[in-house]
Each structure stands twice: as C-alpha cells, then as structure tokens.
Write a structure and sequence with these properties.
The complex is a heterodimer.
Chain A (H helix, E strand, L loop, with lengths): L10 E10 L9 H22 L3 E10 L3 E10 L16 H11 L13 E6 L7 H9 L2 H5 L1 E7 L5 H8 L36 E3 L2 H20 L4 E2 L30
Chain B lengths: L11 E7 L2 H6 L5 E9 L5 E9 L9 H21 L10 H29 L19 H12 L11 E6 L3 E7 L3 E6 L5 E5 L10 E2 L16 E4 L6 E6 L1 H4 L5 H12 L6 H14 L5 E8 L31 H6 L1 H20 L33 H15 L5 H6 L2 H9 L4 H6 L5 H12 L8 H4 L4 H10 L20 E3 L7
Classes of the chains: A alpha/beta, B alpha+beta.
Chain lengths: 264, 510
Amino acid sequence: MPFPNVRLANRPLHFLYLCDCSGSMAAQGKMQALNQAIRQSLPGMAEVARQNPEARVLVRAVSFADRASWHIAQPTPVEQLQWVDLQAGGVTAMGEALELVAAELRSPPMEERALPPVLVLISDGQPTDDFEAGLQSLLRQPWAQKAVRLAIAMGHDADLEVLQQFIGSDPGARGGGGLPVGEVPGASGQAPLHRPGKSPRRPLQASNATALAQYIQWASTAVVGAASMPASRVAGAAAEGNIPLPDLPPTVMDPTDDVGPLVW
Amino acid sequence: MVSSGAGPAAAAALHCSRIGAAHRRQGRPCQDFSLSHRCRDAAGQPVLVLAVADGHGGARYRRSERGSRLACELAVTEVARALGAQATAADTGLEPWRRWLTHELPEAIHRLWLDAIAADWERDPEGGNPGGSDPGRPDPASPAAAAAAPEAGAEGFSPLSYGTTLGLVVIGPHWWGHTGLGDWDLVRVEAEGGGASLLSEEPAQAAGGEATCSLCQRQAARLFAPRSALYPRREGERFSLLLSSDGIRKSCSTDADFLTLAAHLAALPDDEPELLASALDQISREGSGDDVSVAIAQLGAPPPERTPERTPGPLEPDAHGPAEPKPPQTGQQRGRHAWLLLALGATAALGLALTRLLPNSRSPGPGPPVAAAPTEGTPPPAGPAAAPLPLELQAQLRRSIAQLCASPASIRASLRQRQSQITGLATGQLQAHQLQRNAATDPLGALLGTAFLARGPQEAPGPLRALGACPELEAGLAATWPAGPADRRMGPLPAQAGPTGSSRPTAPPP
C-alpha cells in the first residue's frame, strides 16, 4: 500500500528581530554594531537550522524609529536571508512595533503547528509612544504568550523596566518575581534560573559591540537550536518558560569574563 | 479472565511506537509508548484496550520514557481488572460506564501510576537500568545518557521526572469510549472510504504550544474529564479508530493531511506490522522529528448477542442504569445485584416502549457520546419543537448571533474558542441550561447551550434561525454536534510517540 499523497512538513520556527533605529543608535557606532552583529550571526543560525531539519527557521525583522515598519516583512528561510543595513534616525516607536508583530502572531497567519516563536527586542532607549498599549496588544496573542521573548539593552540608557515587561517576569527567580530591575544579579541573594549572575529572562546588557555580537549570536544559534527541538512539558510549569533556554554566553556582567571595554 | 482470543469487540488491532528522527540524532530515548490489549469482561465478552503515552521531552523529565510505559501498562491492566469484575452488558446502561471512564478509572490510573513511579525510583534511584528491560533508553555511552546520569543522582524523587500524557480507548461489545489527558489525538475512520474525522484533541485552552496536561500533575485525575466520552455501538457499524501521539499530527502540514494520513494508517494490514513501523519512521523523518505512536482498532459488526434497539441518547435519562453501579464488582456482589439487573432490564424495556410512543423521539441511528441525564428541576431537552425561549434569553441570543454573523469568516474560529464548553456539553460535564442562565455574562455560551439542546435532525428551521442565525453560523453549530453516524467535534484542529517496535495486541495468559 503506497504512502498517501499527504504533505508532511517540518514545523515553522518564526524568529523576529525588533530593532530600535532611533537617532541615538547613530551614536558611538551602535547602529553599525547591530547591523554587523546580525549579519555575522546568520551563517551560524543557518547552520543550526541545517542541524535541526525538523524546524524551518523563518526570519523577519521590524525596525522602529518615528514609526515602526517591517524591515523584512516576509518570513524568510534563514539560508536565503540577505541582511540590508538598518538606518538610525527618529524617536522610538516601540509600542507600534509590538502592534505590528502582534498582527502577525494571530492565528492565522500563524500556523497552529508552529514551534514557539522567538522574539528578540533590541533597544538603547525608552519608548516614545504608547508602549503599554503595544505590549497589551502583543500579549493578547496566544502565540506571543507561547513565544520566547528576549531583550537586549544596548548601553546603559536603555529602559530596562520596559524591556523586562516585554520579557515578562523571571519565573526562575525565587518568589517568581525576578530581580528588581537594574539590580546586579546575586546582590540580593535571589537565585536566577541559570548560572549565578545571569538569566536570559532578564534584559541582556550589551555595553560594547563584542557583547552585543555574543548575545545576538547566542539568540540566533543556541536559542534557535533549543526552540527547534520539540520537547513537550507540563502545562502551567511557569518556571520552565516556554522552552528551556540555554546558558548565556560570557559577558561583562560576569566579572570573570573579559569581553571588551565598556563603551555604551 | 484475560484471554488472547480475538472477539467481536474489534476485528483487528495494532500498535506501534517509533523513536523520532530528532531524538535518534540527539541520542535520546524514545519517550513514547503504546499498547493494544485484549481481555474479556466478567461475562466473557471481548474487550479491546488501546493506549498511547508520550513522555515529556524536557531535561527535567528524565525518566519520562519509564513514565509513559508505566502509564500504558497500568492503564490497560486496570481496565482489564475492572471489566473482568463486571459485565459490560447493555442492560446496565451507559451512564455508569461514562462515569467510570470519566472519574473512577482516571483516579485509579493516577493512583497506580504514582505508586509505580515511586517504586521505580526506590528500586533504581541512580537512573540505571541493570535489568536491561528499558529499551527506550539511550545507549549509556551517548551524550544524553551521560548528561542525565549525574543529574538523576543529584535530585530527589519527583513525579515530574516521569511526566507523560496518556490516551486510552476501551472497546466493548456494546459501547466504546475514550479517556486520558494530554495532547494525543483520536481519529475515527469510516469503513470503505467513508472519510475520517477528528473525535478528540486536547483543548487549546488546556495547554498550548509544547505544553500539555500530564499524569505528573497533582490534579491529573480531574484532567481526564474533558477527554472522556462514551459511545454506544450500533449494529452493522464498521469503522476504525486511530489513537496517536502528537508527533503524528504535528508532522502534517494541515489537518486535512493528518486525516488522510490517519485513514491510510488505519487501513494498513494488521498482519504486516512492519508497514506501520516504516510509515511512522517516514512521518517523523519528513515531519516533526518527534517520537511517534499509534494504536489502531478496526471495529466490525457487533457481537452476536443482540444489542438493545435503542440506547440512551445524549439528553435522555439513563433508564437502563442503576443509580450508582460500580463497574468493578466481585462475583458475590453481582449475585446480590442480580435481582436489580432484572428489574433494570424491565425498566429498560418499558423505557424503550415509551420512547417509541413519544413524537419527537429520535431514530435509533448511531448516536453521539452519552451525556449526563438532565437533573431534576431543569427543563426538558429542547428539540426542534421545544418550548419558546424566555424573552430575555432570546434578546441575548439575538445580540450574540448578530455579532457572530457580522463576520461569517470568523464564526468557526469563535466557536473553537469554546471547545471546553462544547466538550463539557457533549460529555455531560456541563448543563446547557446552566449556560442559558448565564446568558447575560456569557451570551456565546448561552448560544452554544441553546444550539446543543436544539441539535438533531433538522428538517424544519431550528430556533436559532428564527433568531437571525446566518447559514454560516448554523453550519458551524451543526458541525459542532452533528447528528450523523459519529458525533464529531468541530472541524479539524491542529495537535506526539513503547519503544521502537510494532506489534499486535498483548494478550496476557488467562
């Protein structure tokens, strides 16, 4: 009996960058560093996708400045992706960017059988529009709730509180509420989910191009690899997050690591 | 009590679990398990049990392959024990069996599973497998095994380590039913190309994403109810049931592909199990990469013993059943209750005679899952000629209908959001009148309740049309609880995998 004519397919894994392109990103080479970091991460991401054929990694990107717009509107297989540089200029319409993403996380167009999406928000400042409304709109979408939401703060002017709101509370922290925003992990004695001093469920602070590149590389390879593997879990086990996240790369937050000078 | 003889409960059965392509590449074990098992009830009638379990994949569920195996084995053993103590004869009615499948069996399975995993931990706290009886485990030299070993010794016992789903189908001579928890799927395939339909899936609101309900949850026994239903068997009915782990459905581009695939798997010859194994390997390889499991039964003609012409419908009082008959009973108990069964038989006969006299009694055709009988004080079930609805309720319904019909394309999606209410109504966990009473706060729920009461053959326009229902809404509601050969849920919705072998049903020695 021949195998029927049915479409078997790997599961889509949507990876979305939300990139701050406000005017401040033009300073100190931040925009250039972000473009460089994303471009350099693509071969690694493509390799992870090749190693996990059960997932189809599809990349999109939203840029936000005065307005938010799709930088890469079509879900693009990572191996076909050509990164066109982002340009800085304007204010920080972060809320609108979240609205844009929310519209795409509806089902449809999202496939019911998709893997949890990965959303990476990168910013160096504070939102200038209605961030709360955008976040609410985003989190109303079940796929946003299932998503792995990561945030990278470029420099010390980034609004960590806003970025933590985007990620959600750190479920691995004792008490479930995570560390107070801005507190050095470990200072209060609260235990993060992963290695002491680090948690991917808090904003990742990149103080220079090297650290930024490491975080981008981590998100696009280790996280994509973890999200590609179908690993079921118990409903309501909040401490696990939507996927078990891999350890973070070494950064300047870990005093034992030396990854470059404090620039931003 | 347990026999290897194949009887008319099901003509054929097959089960198979295969390690997923991704797990094979990563050196991880197959965390799925499946079983099919033949036994006999106390009256010697054949019973077939199908079980599929999917151990969770995360690192903290490091013994989930044991959890899934224990879940299947304990479930079929408990079913065989319980049915071996009581006949599944039709004259006991269906409602007691529905309660057993929904409440008593899940509680027994959960309790037995917790005891078994605790014993497993005590026997083997280091996670080793000295007996070599765990074929789902990876090569001890593999990276996954190396990573898991130290962790196993570092932490104490937790049911989480054994977390697993469980899907169960029990097929007796007069009824068949399903129960379980987690993200398994159950498909009914009609004989001779009659099409396939999704009978049961995990409600989206129960979990979502890769999260699923699990036996390791404290309230696990209660989580079986939404996945439980009981169906009467009908003379001449021929169909197959395919119970699958979520790896199958998640490998298919669309649910239409899944149903086509299910029909193909259900039609595979049971004397060539290697065909099934090969198909499952292909599915995982070209699809989700997850472990994959199926258990299949082909249901043929009912047993020679004549079944009653009519069994209780979804809204009818269970005239046949005793008040609280516990399915598992000893022979002595059965003797003491023989008089009661005789009386119940007479009551059933009287009930049948009465229902034939009623003008709106439904024709005997195949029926939907048995729902709880209406409780005293609630209005009688409404059919097409039901009493008028209260004006206030009508107004609420009109508003809800207008809202839904303003966006016909969104009607099915809106109804899908109410899967728990739909399932609750179908299984009797939820009363339609209760939903109607809450119309002010939940008009869509009231609409569902009203539609549930009005369902059935609809030669004449239903009450919802009179309230302005558009054809799309009528079609959507009709597809929710069709009156056809099988009670089907709403249209296809989207949905994982013993070790790496396929086999025919187990039949322990008598």
